[in-house]
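User: Can you fold this complex?
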Amino acid sequence: MSGAELTVGTWNVNSLRVRLPHLAQWLAATPLDVLGLQEIKLPDADFPGADLERLGLGGAWHGQKTYNGVALLAREPLAGVGRGIPGYGDPQARVIAGSVRGVRIVNVYVPNGQAVGSDKYAYKLEWLARLGAYLAGELARHPLLAVVGDYNIAPEDRDVHDPQAWEGQVHVSPGERAALGALLALGLVDVFRRFEQPERSYSWWDYRAAAFRRNAGLRIDLVLASSALAARCTGCRIDATPRRWERPSDHAPVLATFDLSA
DNA sequence: ATGGCTAACATGGTTAGA
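Assistant: Here's the predicted assembly.
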């Protein structure tokens, strides 16, 4: 949390307005330096910046009415804040970036994709291609780069509670996995898998059909790191605690810690 | 069994999520 360590989190809160009490409760128990939020679902004018300041967090946000919206919160001032993918006139607020202690952090809310073959699926793949081109430039400028967020893609079958039932569906389709593979091929590492993890580790569970109680989930919230930053990663975990609370987000936060002293 | 649940916007029922 301080000195040589940097802890970065990511959490799809599914409405910051509704989840602000959970965020406060979780932050009180969870030391971190930087936190990317997705699906804040409010315009910038309604962003609860003063509430978050009371929780010790400043930062920057990129919101819109009703849908999407991302924020990058930090205990230290953010440098070089950027919103959206440069040169891509995306009307949906899905990306915000900033730097802390020489580490570049890009926070993403990848489109859902709805169904394979749909217009939204095509948008998802186009969006991921644009993200890849943007990240290639970010990697060239920032050796220490983390790309955190809700990817809406389960990287492998072990990230899916029932791979047979999900085969070919959106979030696991070959096209999406190829797009994620293209991001990894830039030199990014899914740091969660750098460490031993519990079997059946997921970060999202459907609200319906008692999915959380059955641990019927997907691991779709990821921390990707450049090779130089991944080499400094000392741990990565999913914190399912707030998913057990009353009126939860359907996603759990993910945390990764980096030792910057080396 | 193509549902189940939650949130925004609106104030009943649609859109969207994953």
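Chain A is about 25% helix and 25% strand. Chain A has a mean pLDDT of 97.
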